[in-house]
Automatic annotation (TrEMBL):
GO (cellular component) term, any one: plasma membrane
Topology term for the membrane: Multi-pass membrane protein
Protein name: Sugar ABC transporter permease
Cell location: Cell membrane
CDD domains: TM_PBP2
Main location class: membrane
Region called Disordered, residue ranges: 1-22
Length: 307
């Protein structure tokens, strides 16, 4: 009987035997990994979902309270404001990161001699610790910090302000730090998408008389649709669960003006010891992230097919 030679791409085929056909991969080898995945990524959220319907304080036995925790979220002004702040930060962050990241990518996609250095500089904040970055910015936002000193140095003393101490400006300071740190990440994704835009298409558009804006709108942006899908999904999820920047810059203040759902989870669970109530806020945040993230991805995918 002749023996068939097995090629690398055919390693799951039977080498001999009358039946032939495909051999199933040994799923038993993945058993440990699957168990760990379920234990780390699904067991904890599911158990938290159970505690969301209790009044557990972390020490004593948990008593079932039904939907009372969720009613309190809707009745509490602090929780409603935290939900509103979460939406505002996520929406503004999503738009600004896409715009700034795209502008940087378009500017650094050209044959600048220093483009590699500039790309590294703009991307560097994305790999730094959000807490470390936020503490640096906290010093810059203080009344005697770098921003107010710069304003005073150029003759704009009336604009000096206690940026983090004013409820009307504190949340926008958080937004500035978020956009500053993650625009480089969006830039890298857009740069990867721009590498797939063939030079021939740009040249054909130039020959047809299309100006810069028209080439950007009709050629470049439609071909960047997959990159927009990735960036918008990642940044939307990141914006909805923002915690580090708020915690380091303002701690949720002043006067709860920068509280988000994530900071309220920490506050209610580990500061006030209301583990059940904190779990209910976490469940609300998880549901919102899941719904909005999936809806955004579906919309972006349909948009890709239309372009």
């Amino acid at each position: 009987m002749s023996r068939r030679i097995t090629v690398p791409g055919d390693r799951w085929r039977r080498e001999d035997g009358p039946a032939g056909g495909a051999r199933k991969p040994p799923w038993a080898l993945a058993f440990v990994g699957v168990v760990l995945l379920i234990g780390m990524h699904f067991a904890a959220p599911l158990s938290g979902g159970v505690y969301a319907f209790t009044d557990w304080d972390g020490f004593n036995s948990a008593n079932f309270v039904g939907w009372d925790n969720f009613r309190e979220i809707m009745d509490s002004r602090v929780q409603r404001d935290a939900l509103l702040h979460t939406f505002v930060l996520a929406a503004c962050y999503l738009v600004l990161v896409n715009v700034v990241g795209l502008v940087l990518a378009l500017a650094l996609n050209r044959t600048l001699k220093s483009r590699n250095v500039l790309r590294t500089l703009f991307f560097a904040p994305a790999v730094l610790s959000p807490l470390a970055v936020s503490y640096v910015w906290q010093y810059m936002f203080t009344y005697d910090g770098a921003i107010n000193r710069m304003l005073g140095g150029i003759g704009l003393d009336p604009l000096r302000h206690e940026w983090l101490g004013d409820p009307s400006t504190a949340i926008w300071c958080v937004l500035v730090v978020m956009v500053w740190q993650h625009s480089g990440q969006a830039m890298i994704i857009f740069l990867a998408g721009l590498q797939g835009v063939a030079d021939e298409l740009e040249e054909a558009a130039v020959i047809d008389g299309a100006r810069t804006w028209m080439r950007l709108r009709r050629v470049t942006l439609p071909l960047l649709a997959p990159a927009f899908t990735i960036v918008s999904t990642l940044m939307l999820i990141s914006g909805l669960r923002v915690f580090d920047q708020v915690y380091a810059l303002t701690g949720g203040g002043p006067v709860y003006s920068t509280e988000t759902l994530a900071t309220q989870v920490y506050q209610q669970t580990f500061v006030e010891g209301r583990f059940g109530f904190g779990a209910s806020i976490a469940m609300v945040m998880t549901v919102l992230i899941s719904i909005l993230g999936i809806a955004n991805m579906m919309y972006q995918r349909r948009r890709e097919r239309r372009l």
